[in-house]
Design a protein that fits this description.
Elements: E1 4-10, H1 17-22, E2 30-35, H2 42-47, E3 53-55, H3 62-71, E4 77-80, E5 85-86, H4 89-101, E6 108-117, E7 123-134, E8 140-142, E9 148-150, E10 155-157, E11 162-164, H5 173-183, H6 190-202, H7 206-218, H8 224-240, H9 244-253, H10 262-274, H11 278-290, E12 301-302, H12 309-321, H13 324-335, H14 342-351, H15 358-364
Parallel strand pairs: 1-2, 1-4, 2-3, 6-10, 6-11
Antiparallel strand pairs: 4-7, 5-11, 6-7, 7-12, 8-9
Protein name: Glycosyltransferase
Domain Glycosyltransferase 2-like: 5-141
GO molecular function, one term: glycosyltransferase activity
Length: 366
């Protein structure tokens, strides 16, 4: 069976580090913690799991810190996590099985990264990351912020998920690093342009975000998944700026680059629903509902758009069209994902009398 080093960089993570390490420590041969300047009890928590604790002077460069952590590993493979990540029980058992069966010829194992879930446990935002890599390949992290692990060779895509369970987040950290780089007249890479635009959007600086999304597209050096995400995020910005025409244009822009995705179809469905063009809205929501769920997508994926959301919106559309049977059917499909959603429960109670045979309804009102 292969051996695994868990390599982590941390700073002021006393609230989450123990939960993270506890979710995977029993299956790890070596835990390496690189602290980048904690002032709380992070190091004390780490000591409960390992004596391999090192320190790295923070230089506003996440890749540099991660590469240092990787350089300290001694096992066959390296697993990386952030302190607010966990393996849930099902994924932990799958991870254990993977370690027992993994072909040593594999260079990297990718895993879904669940960034958010709804109150019913459905994953709503997912991205795939290279998570377990062969140490001998000496793969390197690239980028001071929103860093990525550059891998090559034989990769397998697993269904083992890492779940992000953030308690708090330093929302200004990343944008401050980018703006420090810009103030020093540093030229941002296409990838950095995209992620800086995302930071601007998250800070409600929508017009600036649009400017940088356009700069990203203009480079012509765009990963297709980032390009598609860029179009959707620009549409979000125009929505916040109350510019429905440009919101529509940004949504349709994604169709230049790839076949329609569920999130773009839902955006179009919403656009036409707001205009009360129900036939068009139904077309786009039906298209979204019919698309297969993305399991191996590497870009950001909103799974709501390929699960419950189009069905709930189709319930609204068919109700307005007077087709209560179809409205009921789609409401029930949405309910398979969100069984206690109050909107779905209300729709059910509203629609049930409308889909009963006419004789039953007359009897009930007699």
């Amino acid at each position: 069976m292969i051996t695994v080093s868990l390599c982590m960089i941390v700073k002021n993570e006393e609230e989450t580090l123990g939960r993270c390490l506890g979710s995977v420590a029993q299956h790890i041969d070596e835990i390496i913690i690189v602290d980048t300047g904690s002032t709380d009890g992070t190091v004390a928590v780490a000591r409960q799991f390992t004596d391999r604790i090192h320190h790295f002077a923070w230089i506003d460069d996440f890749a540099a810190a991660r590469n240092y952590a990787f350089s300290l590993a001694t096992s066959d493979y390296i697993l990386w996590l952030d302190s607010d990540d966990i393996f849930r029980e099902k994924d932990r058992e799958q991870f254990k099985a993977l370690l027992q069966t993994l072909d040593p010829a594999v260079d990297s194992v990718s895993m879904p990264y669940i960034l958010s879930t709804d109150e019913f446990g459905n994953s709503t935002s997912v991205i795939r990351r290279n998570r377990l890599v062969k140490r001998a390949k000496r793969f390197q992290w690239i980028g001071p912020v929103h860093e990525y692990l550059l891998v090559h060779g034989r990769t397998i895509n697993s269904d083992i998920a890492v779940t992000h369970c953030s308690i708090r987040h330093d929302s200004d950290r990343n944008i401050a690093i980018y703006e420090k780089r810009l103030a020093a007249d540093e030229k941002l890479s296409p990838r950095d342009l995209f992620y800086y635009a995302n930071e601007l959007k998250d800070h409600a600086r929508y017009r600036e975000a649009i400017t940088y999304y356009e700069k990203f597209i203009a480079t012509g050096d765009c990963w297709i998944e980032d390009l598609l995400s860029c179009c959707g995020r620009m549409a979000d910005c125009y929505h916040e700026l109350n510019d429905p025409q440009r919101e529509l244009e940004s949504t349709l822009r994604a169709f230049q680059y790839a076949a329609p995705r569920a999130d773009s179809c839902c955006r179009l469905g919403y656009y036409f629903l707001q205009k009360n063009d129900l036939a068009a809205a139904v077309h786009w929501y039906e298209t979204a509902a019919a698309l297969p769920q993305p399991h191996d997508a590497w870009g950001f994926t909103n799974r709501s758009c390929s699960t419950w959301l189009p069905h709930l919106q189709l319930c609204v559309c068919y109700d307005r069209l007077g087709n209560y049977e179809l409205a009921h059917q789609h409401n029930e499909k949405a309910g398979e994902y969100r069984p206690t959603d109050q909107r779905i429960l209300y729709n059910r109670s509203y629609l049930q009398p409308l889909i009963q045979p006419s004789s039953s309804r007359s009897d009930s009102y007699a």
